[in-house]
Amino acid sequence: MIYNEVAVMVAAPAREQNVFLIINRQMIPLEKRVIRIGRQLDNDIVFHEEFISRLHAEIHYEGGKYVLYNNSGTGGTFVNSAPVDSCILNSGDLISFCSIQAMFVNNNARLTVKAMGTTQNLNPLRPV
Could you report how far apart the first and last alpha carbons of the chain are, in Å? Predict the structure, then answer.
């Protein structure tokens, strides 16, 4: 049984894309402020599965963060195995739309540079 058949309606990136979903080995860029996900054909990401709602979920870019909103009344949306109504997404989060799995990836250069500066020596007696 094929689960993860996905139709993607998002336009090809005009620049290097740093934020995307990985679904069934496909990298789907998140280029719009609101990405609509569901069974309805005018969504940005379309799943052809009965258990997915017409407008199952949305991902909004708000205040420099990506926020997932669950619009599903029945099947549910989960992040890292926990049910959510809304959730700020972090790179590496595993999202489940019913039984369809996706990974949120944010390779934002600003976050990478910030993370590089946080490593410190664990042994205070030994110089770095």
Answer: 54
Decide if 48 contacts 24 (C-beta within 8 A). Answer: no
Contact status, residue 71 vs residue 51, Cβ threshold 8 Å = no
- DSSP letters for 17-85: --EEEEETTEEEE--SSEEEEESSTTSSEEE--TTS-TT-EEEEEETTEEEEEE--SSS-EEETTEE-S
pLDDT in tens, the chain (128 residues): 233 455 544 443 333 458 999 999 999 999 999 999 999 999 999 999 989 999 999 999 999 999 999 998 678 899 999 999 999 999 999 999 988 999 999 987 554 444 444 444 455 555 54
